[in-house]
Predict the structure of Aryl-alcohol dehydrogenase-like predicted oxidoreductase.
Amino acid sequence: MISPLSKLGLGSAQFGLDQTTLVRGRAPKAEARDILDIAARAQLPVLDVDGHSAVAEAALGESLPRPTPFRISISTVRPDRGPDYVEAEARATLRRLGVEQADAILVPCAADLFGPHGMALWNRLKAMKDAGLTRKIGVSVFASDDPLGVARRFRPDIVQAPASLLDQRLLIDGTLAALAGLGMEVHLRSIFLNGLLFLPPDRAPTHLKAAASRISRARRLIAEGRSDPLQAALGFALSRVEAATVLVGVTSAAELSAVIAAASSPPPDLDWDEMAIDDPVALDPRAWAAA
């Protein structure tokens, strides 16, 4: 039987390496080292590196176990300064991380591919792949980006997309199945939907009040199924046959230990379909920022 941990990937954006303050009384680098050691012992295969400063990337590189056991994904910078700059920054990131080759380089925003520099960016990524700087290239999308249209036009190796117990849009409309059917690796992100499932309804921000009753109902169904939100969220995502990788973000070693324990448990027997919500503000992080 294949371990569910073989699909679990770790995102580093929440490690706190861009902070100078202590995290739970510990230096961010020490916490990151413990997180990565736990991930390595659990044989989590993927580490997604995104959203860090150069200093934080260097700190992450110092914290990585050696030899590095992870398939490392990095993201491009914005393409408006030209493809030479994009490649130089990708090479600099790999140097700071202390790895010679990325498993994947991802365009972090599909809109970048449709701007005036989009084709130059994509052509350079293909050249970087041909040169052996990365094994795969891909793109990160939102549900509103027409992910299938993006994939058909650019033919990426990987599509990173949001999906969760609450946000099932790309599963319901068949997008993720179609992407997998095209031979692309589907990496799920935002499986905790910014922690929305863990937030008591009475503490939901004002702009999410419209979705509070549906979230409350999902929590009730999870409790009635003798499960908890963490186990349910992971069980749902890891059981998706469309997904090659399920990315999680944590802020501490304790959080990662809890994730690994929950992911290692049999998925709860729940009616997943009953837990989906359709509130556009709750489901779109960009709408959260604008609220």
Q: What stands out?
A: The chain has a mean pLDDT of 91. The first strand starts at residue 8 and ends at 11.
